[in-house]
Amino acid sequence: MTKKRQEILEPLTRELLGRVDNIIGKRKPSAEPAPYKSPKTKHLIKSQIIPCKSCHKPAAMLIFAPDATTAAELEDYARLMYDPMQKTKVPTWILGDEYDVNINGQQDIKIFLMKTYPNREEAQHVLASIFDRSLDFLIDNHCRSKRKRPY
Ligand SMILES: [Zn+2]
Questions:
Q1: How many A from CA of 140 to the centre of ligand 1?
Q2: Are residues 119 and 72 in the same domain?
């Protein structure tokens, strides 16, 4: 949280200091405050929470690790994302490297992935179309056990 707060406050502080400087004349009035550049974070990890279409609660989480080509690299991402996974408490996959495959003349994509929540599973290469279907199934069935279908 402290880091998030810093990310928000730092540009504001800089802007404010820039204005103060302008007013008290440390800078030329025409000088633009230096544009704020966020520090490059080595582990800027993209993730996506997929909500249930019925109750809008999180139904699944995807963590994107496009540079992960080995199980150990997927594990690294799992370690870094441990806290968000424990908080979100939904089925979570780390999606690593994606590559094109040709199966019986059909173009498809394979994803090197690892399921990490609720149970850690072996890293595996899965067809994107199959993964998408099982993800859809999971999301579609999020509420199905609790609610009666309206039709
Ligand atoms: Zn739901």
A1: 8
A2: yes
Q: Identify whether residues 22 and 87 lie together within a single domain.
A: no
Q: What are 33-79's pLDDT values in tens digits?
A: 665 554 444 558 999 999 999 999 999 999 999 999 999 999 999 99
User: What per-residue confidence (pLDDT) applies to 46?
Assistant: 95
48 Cα–ligand 1 center, Å: 17
User: Is 23 inside any structural domain?
Assistant: yes
Give domain status of residue 149, yes or no: no
Ligand 1 centre from 60 Cα, in Å?
A: 11
112, 142 Cβ separation under 8 angstroms = no
**Is residue 1's pLDDT more than 70?**
no
Residue 119 confidence (pLDDT): 95
Q: How far from 35 is each of 26, 31, 41, CA to CA, in Å?
A: 17, 11, 18
Is there a cis peptide before residue 118, judged by omega within 30 degrees of 0? yes
Task: Count up the domains in the chain and report the number.
Answer: 2
Which residue range(s) make up the domain with 60?
A: 46-140
